[in-house]
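Morning run. Coffee first, then this:
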Amino acid sequence: MSETEKTRAQIIEQCRAVCHMATALSHVYSDYQTILLSPNSDSIMDMVGNRTASIMETLGDILNGMDAVTEEDDWLKPVFEEAQRRWPQPHH
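And here it is:
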């Protein structure tokens, strides 16, 4: 296997790893969403609010850097603004 083929194989595995981790992240936050629909979830609201605000900033930075944000994502703007107001992140 040539060095180019080895590099291609590594990058393919990295893409697979990113897909796997993004899917796992999606499942975790889908579960949080379900938990927060319960009136007994008050004790985790601040923790989940801060974590989601941080994850949103990171994912937003990544997607902006890839020029992957479109007009279809406009609904996110007020969500980001309110998250930044309630749980300001130190790096933003």
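Helices lie at 3-36, 45-65, 76-86. Good start to the day.
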